[in-house]
Design a protein that fits this description.
This protein is an alpha/beta fold and 308 residues long. Helices cover 50% and strands 13% of the residues. It has helices at residues 12-21, 23-35, 44-56, 61-73, 81-93, 121-134, 151-162, 174-188, 204-221, 239-252, 270-278, 299-307, and strands at 109-114, 139-142, 165-167, 192-195, 226-234, 256-260, 282-286, 294-296. Strands 3-2-4-1-5-6-7-8 form an 8-stranded mixed sheet, with helices on both faces. It is elongated. The protein binds guanosine-5'-triphosphate (GTP) and magnesium ion (MG).
Length: 308
Amino acid sequence: MFNFFKKKETDKPEENKLKNALSKTISSLVGNVINSVSGDIPTEYELDDIESMLIKADLGVDLSVELVEKIREQKIKSSQLKEFLKQEFIKLLDVDVEPELKFDKDKLNVYFVAGVNGAGKTTLIGKLANKFKKEGNKVLMVAGDTFRAAAEEQLDVWSKRANVDILREDKADSASLAYRGIDKARNEGYNVVIIDSAGRLQNKFNLIEELKKIKNVISKKIENDNLETLLVLDGTQGQNGLNQAMVFNEALDLTSIAITKLDGTSKGGIIFSIAKNLKLPTKLVGIGEGIEDIAPFNKNDFINALFE
Ligand SMILES: Nc1nc2c(ncn2[C@@H]2O[C@H](COP(=O)(O)OP(=O)(O)OP(=O)(O)O)[C@@H](O)[C@H]2O)c(=O)[nH]1
Ligand SMILES: [Mg+2]
């Protein structure tokens, strides 16, 4: 049984951890909004304020305007505002796609991790490798960021922390390294391969072309295996992340998103914006710099953390 992605009813500490990490987002998206109204029905002035607050929480302009319009039209009372927001947020997350990270213990599971520099790719790979390893899997990391000098070293440190193997090679071509990583996994009985990639090349065009090449090579190697193409977005970057996601999705045909650095940001509204605009599931969230600071993105837990 792969426990990491199964909800554990008794897992209160995990829920508290998520709630703590989200504390600023909870204020920006829910607390401040609810506290901003005083009378029976929100006034026009208060509605304007709510709109600005939602935009600041990175829900996106369209969505913020749309929500406030609904509050106005449906004559939502101040006392109903919290429940109204909750129901709207639940609807937004109700994307019609598998929300759990692909994993099948009888297959080779390949995770190709992409994202702009500093988004948190390498850190996420360390955390994810650790989780998979603890669940009894044989994990191989591939140091696919061959561009930045210290990148392999950084992944190496994470491989030691997580106690998993790594395939690295100075100045290698990253697509060919990914190719060899999958071969190695097949030959040596690994069931999880996590491939890191560069976040910066000479320019953005080169980066996207390079990532496309790697994805192409990986796709050709995938037989009856699982491939998850994961985009890592920095949660503190808000709407910029949405634009990045569109570009990466176009190039790489993403299957999921991981949002990092949700701890300490008030801009967690980006999760709703992504769900609405991209129709791509957020499957993981990063909630700190430590190896355990990762959580599967569970819609109910997220909503509960925001509203309870
Ligand atoms: N607070 C917090 N910091 C994080 C989280 N994830 C990553 N970081 C920090 O973000 C910084 C960048 O993380 P990396 O994992 O190196 O990012 P990257 O995408 O691999 O960056 P490049 O290799 O330069 O493309 C590091 O200082 C991490 O410790 C998170 O969930 N919360
Ligand atoms: Mg990196």
